[in-house]
Amino acid sequence: MILKRMSLHGMVLLVCSSSVIALTTLPASVRGIGWISHLFMIADHPNAHDAIGHASLYALLTATIYWATRSRFGFKRAYWVALVSGLGIAATTEFIQQFSPGRTMMLSDLLANWLGVMTVAMFICYRRAWTHS
Predict the structure, then answer these.
(1) Across 33-79, where does the E strand assignment appear?
(2) What's residue 1's pLDDT?
(3) How many CB atoms lie under 10 A from the CB of residue 89?
(4) Which residues, in sequence order, are CB contacts of 57 under 8 Å at separation 6+?
């Protein structure tokens, strides 16, 4: 019944946020998590692929939150919802990692998460200024 009333925006947001949270908090032993983390391995830079992955995931999440809330809340409110939610979810999932086997809470991962969130936030502002000038 609840899925019948959920909009496309809400369903996409639910799938995206669930995927990001699962990918960043599930134990490393879960099938698929290790494969995904080694998918974009960069030779001689063991932490670069991890940072790029974290930044990309949280950039996608922030963009999806903004897209899903823009038509309902308007630009200003949707922007702040996306920014605060992205930063908050990034910090929360990084904190949760310390309780997940095979995962560790790392400042570099948190900064990469926030880099993805802030990059999308800056792009949203730039696009808004460019289209309204």
Answers:
(1) none
(2) 42
(3) 20
(4) 20, 23, 24, 113, 116
